[in-house]
Amino acid sequence: MFDSHQVQAIDAQLARSNARTQIVQLDGMKIVVKQPEAPLKHWGYPVLSALAQLLGQPMLRAVPAPGGQAAQRIEVDRLRALAAAGVSVPQVLHVSERWFALSYLGARSVDQLLRHDAANGQRYWEDGLQAIRELHRLGQTASQCFARNMIWHEGKVSFIDFEDDPASAMPLASAQARDWLLYLHSTAFTLAFADNAEYAARFLDYLRQDDARVRQQVEKTAHTFGWLRFLPRQRKPWGRDVMSAQRAADILHLLSRQMKNEGIV
């Protein structure tokens, strides 16, 4: 915990900016300071949960993200629990009613590396896959397992942003399957494999190491949403989101077919 002088120094720096998350210099060291956002209202939660039940897809259930002090408590508790389990996450340094402080792991997310260092893109992408596999081996799950929430530093990937807890809204196997699928979707547009079959094969190399219940959830989702591969492939005028969904669905279709051929679901 910080002393009163350090707390005052952080308060003074926070007063200079309206940003909710800030990199702050404290005693010559960079730290991350996060302030809670306003409490959130999500009117779409019942609709999303009903859709999850209709499709038989538990991972689509709404994950409460309350905002405010409740979200801060969730994130602090999750970070401490994950660290205790051996997951690489930022260290909680100080908690107050107005903000909490974390160790700084750097600014290079897996998403940024894929965009700006294409020559080494596959290496960073597979580092992300290995980090997810290790996370699950430790019996844990991420919150929003997008490539932007995975920080690459000191030769490994660490996870950030835990303002919700998927395992509180769905079975752990579903939450872990959700990790794989969110990571796939967030990297489908940027990673430059020669073809989607190669993409699916490398992805499966890591997925097959996970629990059978997780693999089954991924395959079931791949089967349910495989039709999205027929979306347009052109960026103009459809935009990046449509292209990402199309490519991710195509990869999932190939993944599902390969899993069935190998009898691993």
Can you tell me about this structure?
The chain has a 4-stranded antiparallel β-sheet with strand order 1-2-4-3, sandwiched between helices. It is of the alpha+beta class. It contains 9 helices and 6 strands; from the N terminus they run αββααββααββαααα. The chain starts with a helix and ends with a helix. The chain is globular. Helices cover 49% and strands 11% of the residues.
Q: How would you describe this structure in keywords?
A:
alpha+beta; 265 residues; four-stranded antiparallel β-sheet
Summarize this structure briefly:
It is built from nine helices and six strands.
Percent of residues in helices comes to 40-55%
Low-confidence parts: 43-48
- Major pleated sheet: 4 strands, antiparallel
Counting DSSP E segments of at least 2 residues, the number of strands comes to 6
Average pLDDT for all residues: 86
Order of helices and strands: HEEHHEEHHEEHHHH
The fraction of residues assigned to DSSP E strands is: 5-15%
Distance between the termini: 47 Å
Q: Supply the helix-strand structural class.
A: alpha+beta
Radius of gyration: 20 Å
Please tell me what the overall shape is. Answer: globular
Number of helices: 9
- Largest sheet, spatial ordering of strands: 1-2-4-3
